[in-house]
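Milestone 3.1: sequence recovery, worked example.
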């Protein structure tokens, strides 16, 4: 009861913003509710003083409610669709994840950036944003200041992508499959991938979500590789338990229930609608976490490394998609 009381102010604030953003998104569909939610959140955070009692609820929405939304979205996709999307995108994901990390490490070396910081930025850009950073920071035994630096860098380019990709997606004449794979492979954070995907259309959103979940699983081999190196150097290692994104299983369970007719078409539509509103709430929460002061405090070298990684992932993945898909 005490926990719910602490969460309520922040959750209610996010809910109100999401409702307003949803209404504005219906009046201006070319912008969409998720972008309005992000803009309103950013404006409130940077123009008004947010009381501390709101913070816990906002963080809870961003961290946990997104996972609920993704699990619910599983009820809108059949196993055959997931398998089809996965097989068409796996090569692109493999090349982009590997190349993105290597490019960031290369730029880190050229710019003489701390090796751990460069690896964190590379993993965040190539796999799944702050989640990847949070998972591998323990393996690398990274200092909190370095972790905060990496997350801030990734956060900036993720917000930028959230605004740019819908514009670029509507400008380029790509198919729904190509757009979905591009968003799922190249946008850093899961929340933004899902939000941008569904902003561009339900077909694009389904593809983007599935691709992003496959991409997220690449945390596992990365943790294994880093742990192996760490053990060889007698620096410890990490358990894979914390690396596995459990909500992916929930997504697959819901997909299975839909595939075998346990979830009807009407319920599937209702769950999909609920999930999309939760995504708008998550993006409002993300906006409320954007602090320009933190972004301005970033040094130029990590910024350049993050820019190089983001450009590589965006451009290289698009070229691969045009050639392979």
């Amino acid at each position: 009861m005490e926990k719910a009381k602490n969460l309520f102010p922040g959750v209610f604030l996010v809910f109100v913003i999401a409702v307003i953003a949803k209404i504005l998104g219906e009046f201006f569909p070319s912008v969409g509710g998720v972008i309005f939610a992000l803009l309103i959140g950013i404006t409130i955070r940077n123009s008004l003083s947010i009381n501390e009692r709101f913070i816990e609820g906002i963080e809870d929405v961003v961290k946990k409610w997104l996972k609920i939304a993704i699990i619910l979205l599983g009820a809108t996709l059949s196993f055959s669709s997931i398998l089809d999307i996965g097989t068409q995108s796996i090569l692109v994901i493999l090349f982009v994840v590997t190349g993105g990390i290597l490019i960031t490490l290369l730029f880190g070396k050229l710019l003489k950036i701390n090796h751990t910081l460069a690896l964190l930025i590379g993993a965040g850009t190539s796999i799944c944003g702050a989640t990847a950073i949070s998972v591998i920071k323990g393996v690398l035994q990274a200092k909190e200041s370095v972790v905060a630096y990496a997350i801030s860098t990734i956060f900036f380019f993720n917000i930028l992508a959230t605004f740019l990709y819908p514009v670029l997606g509507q400008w380029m004449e790509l198919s729904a499959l190509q757009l979905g794979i591009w968003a799922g492979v190249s946008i850093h954070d899961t929340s933004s991938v899902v939000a941008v995907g569904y902003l561009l259309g339900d077909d694009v959103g389904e593809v983007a979500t599935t691709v992003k979940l496959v991409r997220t699983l690449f945390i596992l081999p990365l943790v294994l590789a880093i742990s192996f190196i760490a053990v060889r150097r007698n620096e410890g290692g990490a358990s894979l338990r914390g690396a596995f994104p459990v909500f992916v299983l929930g997504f697959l369970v819901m997909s299975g229930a839909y595939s075998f007719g346990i979830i009807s078409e009407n319920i599937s539509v209702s769950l999909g609608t609920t999930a999309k509103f939760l995504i708008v709430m998550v993006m409002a929460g993300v906006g409320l976490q954007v602090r320009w002061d933190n972004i301005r405090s970033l040094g130029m070298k990590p910024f350049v490394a993050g820019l190089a990684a983001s450009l590589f992932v965006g451009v290289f993945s698009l070229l691969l998609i045009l050639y392979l898909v």
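The two ends are 51 Å apart (CA to CA). The mean pLDDT is 87.
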